[in-house]
Amino acid sequence: MSKSVPENTSIWSKGMMAVTAAQFLSAFGDNALLFATLALLKSQFYPDWSQPILQMVFVGAYIVFAPFVGQVADSFAKGRVMMFANSLKLLGAASICLGVNPFIGYTLVGIGAAAYSPAKYGILGELTTGDKLVKANGLMESSTIAAILLGSMAGGVLADWHVLAALGVCAVVYAGAVVANLFIPTLPVARPGQSWRFTPMTASFFNACRVLWHNGETRFSLIGTSMFWGAGVTLRFLLVLWVPTVLGLTDNATPTYLNAMVAVGIVVGAGAAAKLVTLQTVARCMPAGVLIGLVVLLFSLQHALLPAYVLLFLMGILGGFFVVPLNALLQERGKHTVGAGNAIAVQNLGENAAMLLMLGLYSLAVKAGLSVVGIGVGFGGLFALAIAGLWVWQRRR
């Protein structure tokens, strides 16, 4: 890993390119591994309601380790933290390949992802400054969504060919992410000298929670991003059941293609947000959030692939435009209050608690025998109402 501290704050600096490459490979592995592991569950005849449980053990790791990962990100060079986290992901993917229970292996990947997230977003505020941070977030999100696009497709297509081969590719990609981390420059430690005793660490984290949730701007960001990612992960599993139920297709590839359309749209939306929204005009993203729910509702009522692709692409555009400014707002305000790493850890707690709640409700709805179309319509309508309520609250504040 390079020992020099970059002076160039451009989003095209070598440090930023290394972070982007590492993020692409790591996110590619995450998404390919999800669909490869889902295919493994299908091949081993796990029940349908157990599929969301796979993601729940993943996000559960975020929640359990939330009080600690932010301090880890701020107490070491963030590039090194990213490398360690990707090594944990590699270990989890390799264990699934070697026959370890998929839920255990996927939990290891979740622990790695929990450690990785505060470092990958926190490092952006150390490599870029001011309004370039919105553009850097746009680049990061574009890289992430491109990885979601390609990783999801690769996971589904390879799993249709050979499940073990798909899992092996995921392990190789994680190894590539570890290598890419070697090229991230070693930056100064953000908050050195913090206590590593359990009580002070948890007290520090919950103090960060208190600070961010009591600030109007950061609370607005935390609620918005939590709702968005909770909805996004639930939609992913909704698609896995919607395709065979509504379209009658039982392959692993079609749900990944539909997810890919969302990913392409988010790239477009993230780019638009970087050009049209600044930290002073974040509220411009709110109408897009309301429209996301309405598009989910319309999508659930479709019975053909072409309109489904169009609506999911539109959903992605709205999602990218909605979430990128909120992320940038939290990073900027968090950097000057509790530290960027702690701010992202608090964000992860909120987002993953929302994911766990929404996935749990979705799994219960599936187990109760509710139709996938009814679930989608109800989910989209409630999301639109919730974002509209958040928007009204923000305007009154």
UniProtKB/TrEMBL annotation:
Catalyzes the facilitated diffusion of 2-acyl-glycero-3-phosphoethanolamine (2-acyl-GPE) into the cell. The gene is lplT. It is found in: Cell membrane. InterPro entries: LysoPLipid__transptr_LplT (IPR023727), MFS (IPR011701), MFS_trans_sf (IPR036259). GO terms for molecular function: lysophospholipid:sodium symporter activity. Its main location: membrane. It comes from Silvania confinis. It holds the Pfam family MFS_1. HAMAP family: MFS_LplT. GO terms for cellular component: plasma membrane. This is Lysophospholipid transporter LplT. It comes from the Bacteria.
